[in-house]
Amino acid sequence: MSAFIIICMLLSIISTLYFAIGSKSSQQKYIEHVEFPSAIKQTLRAKYSSLSDEQCELVLANLREYFLICHMAKGQPVAMPSKAVDVAWHAFILHTREYKTFCKKAFGRFLHHTPISASTNSQDVDASLQRTWQYSCQRHFIDYSTPEKLPFLFALDEMLAIENGYCYSLDDSPQAGKINVLSLTNRVTSSQQPNVQTSHIISCGGYASS
């Protein structure tokens, strides 16, 4: 193989990598600055009348955070750990044209919302929630294996006192393994069943999938 051909191949690889990196950066910037439909906030206020405008903005900020995590996951399933943010995501999907355009610009593909009830493999759901945990910790400079606090996306529902929200606490168990890496004990709280303990595997608002 001649030196000229080798140089051409190397230049082709470099240009491909440059395009991929540039595309990823532009997608991230788009997610960080896109304006969501104003009707999403109205949906949140209708669902949770106690939320202030500032708290609704906090939910939307965490929807943006979730989409950034989906971008980091590169097509792998990513579970939704917040009930309030899941409501906002549902409301966004109903604006079909805007959501389709958003997905194309943010991910280069359509980001589907798959309900947990549609999954027949609890291990897959568990893995998708753990993936969300790891990326969320990474974005907040938290050591996901030995965390000292929760990322906002996992703390939001309890912070806003969301009814039937997904509330997490750090697990003090000394055991090693994936469940300890996740380091979460999920508590689904409601007026009907306060402080009911349940598995984190099923206690999330669906997950994003390609």
How many helices? The count is 8
Biggest sheet features: 3 strands, antiparallel
Series of secondary-structure elements, N-terminal to C-terminal: HHHEHHEHHEHEEE
Strand order of the largest sheet: 1-6-2
Structural class: mainly alpha
Helix fraction, binned, reads 55-70%
Shape: globular
The termini sit apart by 40 Å
| Low-pLDDT stretches | 11-21, 174-183, 188-203
| Arithmetic mean of pLDDT | 77
Total strand segments: 6
Strand content: 5-15%
| Rg over C-alpha atoms, rounded to the nearest angstrom | 19 Å
Notes on the protein architecture:
The chain has about 210 residues and is mostly helical. It has one domain (about 35-210). The chain has eight helices and six strands; from the N terminus they run αααβααβααβαβββ. The strands form two sheets. It has a three-stranded antiparallel β-sheet. A three-stranded antiparallel β-sheet has the order 3-4-5. β4 and β5 form a beta hairpin. α3 (about 55-75) packs across α4 (about 85-95) and α3 crosses α6. It is globular and about 70 Å long. The chain starts with a helix and ends with a strand. Residues about 10-20, about 175-185 and about 190-205 have low confidence and may be disordered.
Give the arrangement of secondary structure elements.
Elements: H1 3-33, H2 39-47, H3 53-73, E1 78-79, H4 83-94, H5 96-107, E2 112-114, H6 122-139, H7 152-159, E3 166-170, H8 178-182, E4 184-188, E5 196-197, E6 207-209
Antiparallel strand pairs: 1-6, 2-6, 3-4, 4-5
Helix pairs in contact: 1-3, 1-5, 2-3, 2-4, 3-4, 3-6
